[in-house]
Structure prediction request, 336 residues.
Amino acid sequence: MKLKEEFIAHDAGTESLLVPTGAAGWAGVVRGNKTFGAILELLQEETTEEAVIAAMRERFDAPEGAIESDVARALDELRKIGALVE
Amino acid sequence: MVDTYRIAGAVVRVESLHADVHTLCRRYRFEGEPDFTVLTSQADIDFERERSEAAETAEAAAERGERASSDGYLETLAVYRKIAEAMPARDAVLVHGSCVAVDGSAYLFCAPSGTGKSTHARRWRELLGERAMMVNDDKPLVRVTDGGAIAYGTPWDGKHRLSSDVAVPLRAVCLLTRGDGNHIGRLAAAEAYPALLRHVYRPLDPAALALTLALVDRMVARVDLWRLHCTKGIEAAEVSFSAMSGGEFL
Prediction:
């Protein structure tokens, strides 16, 4: 899976944004924290949920299950707005 | 039909199927080598028709009348869309808002359609008389450079046709919401960014959108940012002008 090219990730300082182009079928803005921003960064290239979780574990120190839960929630949100190619 | 115009500092050659866009842009005619050319086709017009129909209710469409769905009118939208797509590469973005200039500084009011941007800008004109000049009542272009932001009048200036062919340093952006009273406060850049983004044209082209997002970053770092809760009365203009300009209106 990968982020569709019609969705642009943007670091807006205190939060991470995902913004669709005018051609995407959805016109909102997704706002998230730095963890969400890191997930978006990993989704710039073709990857899998397991690979995203593994990369996040290397980058962040988090309690057991927290990263898995953050990644699952983010992917769920991205699927809802049609932002992923799978 | 072909003619050339200077819009927000860019010389644009427009080759259209209908005359409407040339009538709309006549005050911006310019003799010179174009920086880029905008060509429209029936497919561009049909695209605008689909977008317009998807964006508004049947009731609103009927109210706007037959002219609003004519090919000539829709082509004016198609031309501006193409200009707006090309502008981020020239450091400019289209912002949906009403922009007023007072004493050499521009103030841009943004809000969802129907909130009262134009009404508020009209209150500024009532309050300030000849000191206030409309830069553009609907869709100004804003160029963002290291030196600051500049608001430009364009021919796409809303149903009241209020604009001037001017370039004015943009001092402040104000996000407007309708309320029972009038109060205004400053916004931090991080808070303003996603809110302002809702009023900035989103290019169809991903590369142009990435440039747009970077330009909005620079814009929020270079202008004063405000949120105004306001009524429709003249008191709202008194509150916003005093705060945003730091000046007197008497």
Q: What stands out?
A: Chain B has two domains: 2-90, 92-245. The helical segments of chain B are 20-24, 42-55, 58-64, 71-86, 117-128, 189-197, 206-222, 234-245. The first strand of chain B starts at residue 2 and ends at 7. Residues 2-90 of chain B form one domain.
